[in-house]
Every structure is written in C-alpha cells, then in structure tokens.
Design a protein that fits this description.
Number of helices: 7
Distance between the termini: 5 Å
Order of helices and strands: HHHHHHH
Number of strands: 0
Structural class: mainly alpha
Strand content: under 5%
Largest sheet: none
Helix content: over 70%
Radius of gyration: 14 Å
Length: about 120
C-alpha cells in the first residue's frame, strides 16, 4: 500500500498533510513514528484507573498528533474524548472510548500496510 492509499484506508486527509510536510517520504517518516507514540496506550491506562487529569492530557496529545498528521477520523474521535474530559463528563468520555479504539486500530492497520 502506498502512503496515499494508507490515508484513504485510515480516512485521513492526504492532500492536507502533503501540503504541510511537502514530500511523501517525510509524511511516511512521521506516520511510521506514530506507531511508537504512547499517547493512546497512556490514555487507555489512565481511563481504566480513572485518572481523568492524565487521561485528558493524553487524549489532548493524541488529538494534536492526529491533527498534525491529518488523521481525520482518529482526530475526530480523540477530539470528542478530549472535550468530554475537559468538561468533566467522564461517563461520556468512557462511552466514546470504543469509537476511539476502533479508529485507532483502523489507523494502525493502515500504517502497518504501507509497502
């Protein structure tokens, strides 16, 4: 799978990220680095332990990374969790986590499919 096909598979905005990072090689470098970003794992651990301050920081970090890389779908779900946590709506954040998890899995699978 090419980087452009990867963006299609993860429902991201390839044109936006390429306009920012300028080359496909640079885009690929950063999306592969995303695989080692601990934000998602830290978020899920913080949610499990009901450490909502930490969960907010991790969700906010994940949202920012997704925005920078134009991972549109994952950005949307991480943004929803971030805002629920920001507003102290912890049960709402819990309800949104399965969607965020599905979007994260979709994103990781697409990245892992790059040739």
């Amino acid at each position: 799978m090419t980087v452009k096909e990867c963006y299609s598979a993860l429902e991201g905005d390839y044109e936006s990220v390429i306009s920012r990072l300028m080359t496909e090689k640079l885009v690929q470098k950063f999306i592969v680095k995303f695989l080692s970003d601990p934000s998602y794992e830290n978020l899920t651990n913080a949610m499990r332990s009901e450490n909502y301050d930490e969960a907010f920081r991790e969700a906010h970090t994940l949202k920012g990374v997704c925005q920078n890389l134009s991972f549109t779908k994952l950005y949307s779900s991480s943004s929803s969790v971030t805002e629920a946590l920001r507003n102290g709506e912890y049960s709402e954040a819990e309800k949104l986590m399965p969607l965020l998890e599905a979007d994260y899995i979709q994103t990781i699978a697409a990245i892992n499919s790059i040739d």
